[in-house]
Design goal:
single chain, alpha+beta, Arc Repressor Mutant, subunit A, Beta-Lactamase, 2 domains, six-stranded antiparallel β-sheet, three-stranded antiparallel β-sheet, 10 helices, 44% helix
Length: 256
Amino acid sequence: MSDVEDEGRYRAPALDKGLDMIELLAEREEGMTLKDIATALGRSPTELYRMLDRLARRGYVARYGDSYQLTLKLFLLAHLRPPIRRLVAQAMPAMRRFTNAAEQACHLVKYDRGDLVVIAQVEAPGYWGVTIRVGAQIGLVNSGSGHVFLAFASPEEKALMYEEHEPMPYEVPPPGLDERLREVRRQGYEAMESQQTPAVANLSVPILGANGAVLAVLTCPFVRRLENPNAPDRESVLRLLLEIGRELSGQGEPAA
């Protein structure tokens, strides 16, 4: 039996409609009316209303007037998975120590079936800094975190990452990417100018599992702090980040 025949045999139209609406709303920063949703999915409002009402009653969708928006319930459910919960719980104290010592923000990124997702972040101390919100998706080929995941992956894993990942509109591979990834693997970290924000350098280090695979990547969006000439410079911040990376990988003793 072909994949197409198999998919048709086990169809669940009601479930498909609900998932279609969730995926559509996940792509939009602003809410959508029932009419907008129906038009986008090529269905009638009557066909979708009861399903949308159930999603709202179960807390997956919130209604504001005539507009519907996706809530954080799916995100929170994903974080109930023990491996992610344990990883974040272990990483947060070390991340806070890093931000206090480096005077920079940092965030933790996890790869999950083609997506790079920020699962934890700590803001820089003081009044300002560069942060990425928890739940944000970032590029695979044009980010420091993505380069670390690719650099430490086996050829088979790397091919699967490329296959699974759906590039974002602004995601363009830099020239000489393969050579760059070899350098990242050799030195054990990535330090590159941000492809999204001017004057920001992405410093990224791997969090390794017992088998040497990358569990997550810890990234610091480094910005030079002109208001404090005594703040740690880029090289000092990178050394601090590498220490935290080794600690979380079980390769070093926790800081006192």
